[in-house]
Amino acid sequence: MAGLDKRVSSYEEALAGLEDGMTVLAGGFGLCGIPENLIAEIRRRGVKDLTVVSNNCGVDGFGLGVLLEDRQIRKMIASYVGENALFEQQLLNGELEVELTPQGTLAEKMRAGGAGIPAFYTATGYGTPVAEGKEVREIDGRHYILEHAIRGDFAIVKGWKADHFGNVVYRHTAQNFNPLAATAGKITVVEVEEIVEPGELEPSQIHTPGIYVDRIIQGSFEKRIEKRTLRD
User: Fold this and answer.
1) DSSP letters for 61-86
2) What family does the database annotate (predicted)?
3) Nearest-5° angle of CA 75, CA 189, CA 74?
4) Which domains does the chain have, with CATH numbers?
5) Cα–Cα distance between 34 and 220 in angstroms, integer?
6) DSSP string spanning 172-191?
7) Which residues contact 177 (CB under 8 A, 6 or more apart)?
8) Nearest CA among 182, 222, 215 for reference residue 9
9) Interatomic CA distance for residues 201 and 169, integer angstroms
10) Model-wide pTM > 0.85
11) Which one, out of 44, 49, 81, 208, has a CA that is 20 to 30 A from the CA of 64?
């Protein structure tokens, strides 16, 4: 059983093998459920020319936004730009290649990649610039465009709890894109708030089975709130 233990003791070990030019899938939505310490380690390593796939690119100064500051991202595949002024600036200046993808399509691209499905048809985006250059097929009188699955060299994921074998549970809305990203990385690294002994997780509550996970590390998290809203 010891050979199944996927715990690592440092963030340097967690991202061992990450190199320039790789594709990284990142879980999270806004600042909710982001693998903030793994992102910090990518920044510390100084790898460049990355293609990053995530719902958005964090905010100025936090989350994936810190990788923009050091010009480490060459291409961003995302569904949303709006909360990051540097992201917008680099896009408009032509410094950053951006592939905007409808949110549901992006989620399905990751899910398909993890399921071994190379491509799928969707009606989303037909008749818009999203469909330009893509195969179109009519099925039962409706038009669909062919979208290709996404896989990454690394997937970085934020969980709540995990056991030694890499079985992961997410907490509430922090689940978001994390389980999708977790399935689609050649190497999947999950950072969690707590690592428990094998057998402590209720099997029916596990969101990502350990078969998808290569490395687990326990960290502490700032959990910054993106937009704090208070009643008068």
Assistant:
1) TBTTHHHHHTT-EEEEEES--TT-HH
2) Belongs to the 3-oxoacid CoA-transferase subunit A family.
3) 10
4) 20-100+151-218 (3.40.1080.10)
5) 12
6) GGGGTTHHHHHHSEEEEEEE
7) 26, 27, 28, 29, 33, 54, 55, 107, 110
8) 215
9) 8
10) yes
11) 208
Q: What is the mean pLDDT of residues 197-218?
A: 97
What span, in angstroms and rounded, lies between the C-alpha atoms of 182 and 188?
Answer: 6
Radius of gyration of the chain (CA): 18
Q: Which amino acid is at 54?
A: S
- State pLDDT tens for residues 112-151: 999 999 999 999 999 999 999 999 999 999 999 999 999 9
Q: Is 60 exposed, middle or buried (0-12, 13-18, 19+ CB in 10 A)?
A: middle
Q: Whole-angstrom Cα distance, residue 223 to residue 12?
A: 21
Instruction: Kindly report the number of other CB atoms within 10 A of residue 106's CB atom.
Output: 23
Burial of 218 (0-12, 13-18, 19+ CB in 10 A): middle
